[in-house]
Amino acid sequence: MAMIDPNNDKDEDQSDTNTIDENDASINNFLEKVVFDPDAPSNENNWFANLVKNDYYTAEALYAGVIVIIGVIVAQDMLRIVKYGGGFHAPFNSGPGKLF
Questions:
Q1: Where is composition skewed (Acidic residues) in this entry (predicted)?
Q2: In sequence order, which residues have a C-beta less than 8 Å from that of residue 25 and are 6 or more positions away?
Q3: What is the pTM of this model?
């Protein structure tokens, strides 16, 4: 934390503030990038882009469902790795049938 001099309104360490502002700007630029644009010319014949334009709520539910299913599969696989160890783990193989 920079100390503030009562006789001076400026912080002692201006370089940290500039670095933080640059980091915030780069993070904001990254977060504002468009990942999927259904109106882009490259997505003219894309079925998902057409679904987003015509029925947004169905496309949103489909996207959220796929993300949740992938998350569940990854979480189950990670639990299997933790339970049986990394060396003996074979993905998507059934175990002895017990959860814990």
A1: 10-22
A2: none
A3: 0.55
